[in-house]
Rrf2 family transcriptional regulator (Roseiconus lacunae), 139 residues
Amino acid sequence: MNLTTQTDYALRTLMFLATRSERCNVADIANLFGISVNHVAKVVNLLAREGYVKSVRGVGGGIELGMLPEEISIGTVIATIESDTHLLPCVGSDDSCVIHSFCKLKGVLSEAERIQREYLDSVTLADVVPTKRQINRVQ
């Protein structure tokens, strides 16, 4: 599985927000990681639609986690953002190769994906979040 930049930014955003007790803004995240404010804003919109992030407008507004870190599965976040997590196209299809009817590799790769999904689903944001002290040293 090769994760997209969007998934990378989403996971980083969630990790950052999990270190904060107060609301922050998109620019805070973009500045810390040295990435585009526009990219972070797009990711935050997606995360907000899915309930991972809560966005509050107006004075005193900003963004914050919409769920507890213990409730956010890394595997679920990845599955939400990634359109295709298959190792090869044949794993997600019955008809992508001339040898699909007798290919044993497809079964091996399918099992590897299952194990990977199971593991990523068992890891929560709380398991991977840095301490506030660690993230502040980066700034």
DSSP finds seven helices and two strands in the chain. The two ends are 30 Å apart (CA to CA).
